[in-house]
Specification:
This protein is α/β, with parallel strands linked by helices and 292 residues long. It has a domain at 16-219: Aldolase class I (TIM Barrel, Alpha-Beta Barrel). It has helices at 16-28, 48-62, 77-89, 107-119, 131-134, 140-149, 164-173, 187-192, 207-219, 222-236, 244-254, 271-286; strands at residues 71-72, 95-97, 125-129, 153-158, 178-181, 197-198. Helix 2 (48-62) runs parallel beside helix 3 (77-89). The longest helix is centred in the C-terminal third of the chain and has 16 residues, at 271-286.
């Protein structure tokens, strides 16, 4: 399930026409759902109304071919609850719920924030745990407790970088929760430990390779998976650096599918970092394997 980039037009507004084409293109290449409004989608720079319109564009662009599962993140619980309600109203089929932006609260505050979102909707929800990015860490025991209290908590996107979290959640919850890898360069290891989903980033530029890699990993075709993974890893690691938004958009631009335009305060990557990224991207494209 791609966490989609949000294409920004030259005037700074969302390029809704491109977004509609992009989500359809991703599904055409085998992806099974779309996740807008996430951190890769520059969600923190989108106004609440813009997020709702972006959700609507994705829903209308897919025409029921696949579910739209937007990231729900806000600085206040009140706004997060409003976004949960609006997401259902525009046709989203699930939600990916995040801890609050900015406030890195105590455990009871973060738990209450998640519970408010879960109580505000009957849509199936995926809890996004990314302590590195958001400063709030939902431990496996806390996730299991939430799952017991809220039947609509159906999945976890685990992005702590510790593959042992997947086995820990699995041990506590069994098949109760679907487990999604949230880091591009952990997908093969995560699937080996029991994950059955992937919310991915580089898929925005290379969907066929991403889908094939995931399929190999799930099928236990280890040699095929690692052969493709070894080629893909220099690009997949770009999902885990501070400039991941700018660099993934740069990969899209190099492939002729989107631009590197971002919304301030982000700026396109420049200087030595740009030279290094372009060298990595162009080498990967030069050696791009055939998937036939």
């Amino acid at each position: 399930m791609p966490a989609i980039t949000t294409q920004i037009a030259a005037d700074g507004h969302i390029d809704h026409d491109f977004v509609a084409r992009h989500v359809a293109w991703l599904i055409d290449h085998g992806c099974s759902g779309i996740v807008p409004c996430g951190s890769l989608g520059e969600g923190a720079t989108l106004d609440p109304d813009e997020k709702v319109e972006l959700m609507r564009t994705c829903v209308e662009g897919l025409r029921d071919r696949a579910p739209v599962v937007p990231g729900i993140a806000a600085t206040s619980t009140r706004t997060a609850v409003w976004l949960c309600e609006r997401a259902k109203a525009v046709g989203c089929k699930g939600l990916m719920i995040l801890p609050p932006y900015v406030h890195k609260g105590e455990a009871h505050e973060i738990r209450a924030h998640f519970e408010a979102m879960l109580a505000a909707t009957d849509l199936p929800c995926m809890l996004y745990n990314n302590p590195i990015a958001y400063g709030a860490d939902m431990r496996p025991e806390q996730i299991a407790e939430l799952a017991e209290r809220h039947p609509n908590l159906r999945a976890v996107k685990e992005s702590s970088g510790d593959v042992r979290r997947i086995t820990a959640i699995k041990a506590l919850c069994g098949e109760r929760l679907a487990l999604f890898v949230g880091l591009d360069d952990l997908v093969v290891e995560g699937v080996a430990m029991g994950a059955n989903g992937w919310v991915a980033g580089l898929v925005n530029a290379l969907p066929a390779e991403s889908v094939r890699l995931f399929e190999f990993a799930v099928a236990g075709e280890h040699e095929k998976a690692f052969q493709l993974y070894r080629w893909f890893l220099p690009l997949l690691r770009m999902d885990t650096v501070p400039e991941f938004v700018q660099i993934i958009k740069l990969v899209q631009q190099e492939l002729g599918h989107g631009t590197e335009l971002v919304r301030a305060p982000r700026m396109p990557v420049s200087g030595r970092a740009r030279e290094t990224a372009l060298a990595t991207i162009r080498e990967a494209l030069r050696t791009r394997p055939s998937l036939r």
